[in-house]
Amino acid sequence: MLQGKQTWKFENRPVIIGAATVVGPDEGDGPLAADFDLVHPELDMQQKSWEKAERLLLEQASEFALNNAGIAKEQLQFYVGGDLMNQIISNSFAARTLGVPNIGVFGACSTSMESLALASLMVNSGAGQYVIAATCSHNCTAEKQFRYPTEYGSQKPPTAQYTVTGAGAAVVAASGEGPVVEYATIGKVVDLGIKDPFNMGAAMAPAAVDTIQAHFNDTGRTPKDYDLIVTGDLASVGHPLAKELLMRDGVPMDDTTFKDCGLMVYDVNRQKVQAGGSGCGCSAVVTYGHILKKVAKGELKRVLICATGALLSPLSFQQGESIPCIAHAVAISGGKE
Amino acid sequence: MAVKSAGGGKYRKMSMSPKEYQAFAKSREPSRSIFGNCIRAFLVGGTICLLGQAIQQLFIHLAGMKPQEASNPTVAVLIILSVILTCAGVYDKIAQWAGAGSAVPVTGFANSMCSAALEHRSEGLVLGVGGNMFKLAGSVIVFGTVAAFFVGIAHLIFGTGGAH
């Protein structure tokens, strides 16, 4: 189970038997459009508030994931979920709809892998046979809560990121067909004093570096063991910083493909998303929609997903606090070895 | 559960102090073109002012108003235009390009109030719209009033500037 300092090894090989993603219009306009289960053409999704729209995303993703897994709602034992809203309300309302025992978690944008790690831990230890991990974010709810009203005309700097509208859910099971969760490395909170909430990539990069290094040190693996290593939402500012930091510390990142979900979900040059995507939904839709499909097809044998989260609140940055950040990494393999 | 140790400490951990990292990150940050932003702000801000002038001329020539009478309806028209563009979801897109050019004129003030009112409509008319409408505009009013107060004091003491 515990291996090294902060990594869980899942000997019982929990399997992701089904996953689903639901996204908004901008993600549907991006390069991964074909990988999503449902693309909403409108940001409001015919709901009365942005918050209701976000909740709908999470409910739909969970429902589709159960369908894709081929299990009934009654078979599901636990639902581990979270989101970016105050008091993680999207998770709570979706859990109300789902009617399954719920553990709500918060790790900002790292919630995707935090929930997947916990779901895998539960399945691996026998605490459940079928556990779903789900998370979501919505561009407009995030703007409203963390920044300004959505229609307010303020110029965003090129370091700012665009919160992904989308939800992803994965059903983890004790047995079955699908990608296998091998390891989860739980990150430490790292804060190197970046205070600019419009530059979260730079704030989060050291957390990603810390977790990726811890993962290699705990497991004895090297970048070469992975066909793909992705960070959650460092985008065009934070991702090169993370790579440079890793290379400086002697981690041969050139031996693998090192990408970022925030740069994969949008066409950064064409779409007006500043540095790239962010949000809980960012790593969730890219991992559950795009990467898992490639793993299932055998195009990727083994991947490491390192979801990054900026644990700031509107209150903390207005009071001049720097941005504490965290990253959680989950290693997934095709399972056919 | 046994604790297994596996080839630990292979990669040395990050050895950067917060200060070093902040400088490192700053040196790799994409720069904002101040010159380009100034030009765009000048063009858009200037266009809005030109539009205001044209509206004022229309009130003077078509409605037979004096220049001073025409200024209030002119501002009202600009505010309505800004509110319409905000509701149509266009004003924030103009602002991303224009920067201060669309924020400083009265249209920017109208946009800040309208966008907050729209955003918080879901929380009801009183606590939502009423309570949040001045969320952004409020500080402009507070500091505008305070600044006016001090300018008034200065005017009283030195008796300079303004019409007598």
TrEMBL record, chain A:
Gene3D superfamilies: Stage V sporulation protein AD. InterPro entries: SpoVAD, SpoVAD_sf, Thiolase-like. Pfam families: SpoVAD. It comes from the Bacteria. Signal peptide: none annotated. This is Stage V sporulation protein AD. The lineage of its organism: Bacteria, Bacillati, Bacillota, Bacilli, Bacillales.
Automatic annotation (TrEMBL), chain B:
The chain crosses the membrane at residues 34-55, 75-91, 138-158. InterPro entries: Spore_V_AC (IPR014203), SpoVA (IPR005562). Coiled coil: none annotated. This is Stage V sporulation protein AC. Pfam families: SpoVAC_SpoVAEB (PF03862). The keyword Transmembrane applies. Keywords: Membrane, Transmembrane, Transmembrane helix. It comes from Paenibacillus glycanilyticus. PANTHER family: STAGE V SPORULATION PROTEIN AC (PTHR38450:SF1), STAGE V SPORULATION PROTEIN AC-RELATED (PTHR38450).
